[in-house]
């Protein structure tokens, strides 16, 4: 970040070059711009050396993480028509990452990774993340998200719900969230619930749903839900993967997320409450068979094929690409890095093969992920490594 005081001094120095400036000890110092330039020139080689060493360390770390194609997977997050220009939630420039992903696959499939997995946002109609499900909801407002109350996945009440439904783990059938205004007995001065056209009636009638359970707030956790246009809806053409995206339909893993009408899911590994995990982690660890989808999974809500084999070696490194960089891509990288279940991954973000909602959002995501230890590289870095391993 630009230091205001330092910046002001630079401006003043430039404007009064050659003048005499009085400092605290009353000593007059001649500001000599040429001397400053000489001083910078003297330090430039040392600065360049530090930068070069840092780049080499990053390159070595990247190459070490990519040591074995059998333990590496390429993740392609939500490269679907709904997120491309012209889609329901089209991201400007998102189509430009497709050739980069395809080029990486041409160079890297089998050589740098043996496994490729795609996530697919796959919402039912009237999903809780849609602004249309919330009267007066503020669209794509990160500063003022919709307040939701979700049943605490670690609380005793969730254990009771699991017992009542004869569940041994939390799944999409019992995980739930509810907008604060729709909870039984909640204050609703703007009369929002009445304007939802019965959207939450079934939830309010279900004694195990957040719309009932969260009357007692000790059983629940509050969270903000950014509201989006209706997008990636099951049974619509736009829910499918881009036809321009290289796919190997028989072997590419496909996992779906956001299928619970009352819980959103940004990450390819788990929903936003962390209560329900997708199958991705267990597939990458060889515990479940791969799931695939044909015909780019477009139009009809087809079932995923589970005829695939289990992976014979556990994945240790994931390269993350896709849409949107500061939302689903970042959440996927965070889950992979921080740990899913009993394992975590070496995580590599291919930054120019990911597209965000804004340039600022992309930069912040990359900075935040690097601070967590995620390796941030470019498509060219990946291609160079593939060429090196010929």
Characterise the protein shown here.
Helix 9 (359-371) links the parallel strand 10 (346-355) and strand 11 (375-377). With 390 residues, the protein is α/β, with parallel strands linked by helices. The protein has ten helices and eleven strands. It folds into two domains: 70-125 and 232-388, Rossmann fold, CATH 3.40.50; 131-225, no CATH class. The strands form three sheets. A six-stranded parallel beta sheet has the order 8-4-3-9-10-11, sandwiched between helices. The radius of gyration is 25 Å and the shape is globular. The protein has helices at residues 4-15, 33-65, 98-108, 156-164, 201-205, 210-213, 280-284, 325-338, 359-371, 379-388, and strands at residues 20-22, 28-30, 72-77, 115-121, 146-151, 177-179, 220-225, 253-257, 317-323, 346-355, 375-377. The model is unreliable at 1-31 (pLDDT under 50). The longest helix is centred in the first third of the chain and has 33 residues, at 33-65. Helix 3 runs parallel beside helix 10.
| Order of strands, widest sheet | 8-4-3-9-10-11
Number of domains: 2
Low-confidence residue ranges: 1-31
Report the structural category: alpha/beta
By DSSP (H or I, 4+ residues per run), the number of helices equals 10
User: Share of helix among residues?
Assistant: 25-40%
CATH class of the largest domain: Alpha Beta
- Share of β-strand residues: 15-25%
User: What is the terminal-to-terminal distance?
Assistant: 42 Å
For the biggest sheet, the summary is: 6 strands, parallel
Return Rg in Å. Answer: 25 Å
Order of helices and strands: HEEHEHEEHEHHEEHEHEHEH
CATH architecture of the largest domain: 3-Layer(aba) Sandwich
What name does the CATH topology of the largest domain carry? Rossmann fold
Question: At the fourth CATH level, what is the homologous superfamily of the largest domain?
Answer: Isochorismatase-like
- Shape from CA axes? globular
Number of strands: 11
């Amino acid at each position: 970040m630009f230091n205001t005081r330092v910046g002001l001094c630079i401006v003043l120095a430039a404007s009064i070059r050659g003048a005499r400036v009085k400092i605290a000890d009353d000593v007059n110092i001649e500001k000599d711009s040429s001397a400053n330039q000489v001083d910078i020139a003297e330090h430039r080689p040392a600065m360049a050396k530090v930068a070069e060493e840092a780049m080499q360390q990053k390159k070595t770390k990247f190459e070490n993480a990519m040591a074995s194609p059998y333990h590496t997977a390429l993740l392609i997050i939500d490269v679907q028509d709904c997120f491309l220009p012209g889609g329901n939630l089209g991201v400007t420039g998102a189509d430009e990452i497709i050739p980069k992903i395809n080029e990486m696959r041409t160079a890297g499939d089998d050589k740098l990774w043996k496994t490729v997995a795609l996530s697919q946002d796959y919402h039912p109609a009237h999903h809780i993340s849609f602004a249309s499900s919330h009267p007066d909801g503020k669209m794509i407002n990160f500063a003022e998200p919709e307040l939701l109350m979700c049943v605490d996945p670690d609380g005793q009440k969730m254990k009771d719900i699991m017992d009542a439904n004869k569940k041994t783990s939390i799944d999409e059938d019992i995980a739930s969230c509810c907008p604060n205004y729709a909870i039984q007995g909640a204050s609703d001065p703007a009369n929002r619930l009445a304007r939802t056209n019965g959207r939450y009636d079934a939830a309010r009638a279900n004694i195990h749903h957040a719309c009932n359970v969260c009357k007692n707030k000790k059983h629940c956790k509050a969270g903000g839900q950014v509201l989006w246009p209706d997008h990636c809806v099951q049974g619509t053409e736009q829910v499918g993967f881009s036809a321009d995206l290289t796919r190997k339909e028989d072997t590419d893993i496909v996992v779906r997320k956001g299928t619970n009408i009352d819980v959103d899911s940004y990450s390819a590994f788990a929903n936003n409450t962390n209560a329900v995990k997708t199958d991705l982690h267990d597939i990458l660890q060889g515990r479940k068979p791969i799931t695939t989808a044909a015909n780019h999974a477009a139009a009809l809500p087809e079932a995923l094929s589970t005829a695939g084999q289990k992976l014979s070696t556990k994945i240790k490194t994931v390269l993350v690409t896709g849409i949107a960089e500061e939302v689903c891509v970042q959440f996927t990288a965070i889950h992979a890095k921080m740990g899913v279940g009993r394992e975590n991954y070496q995580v590599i973000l291919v930054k120019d093969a990911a597209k965000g909602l804004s340039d600022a959002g992309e930069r912040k995501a990359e900075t935040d992920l690097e601070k967590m230890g995620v390796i941030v590289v470019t498509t060219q870095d990946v291609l160079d490594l593939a060429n090196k391993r010929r």
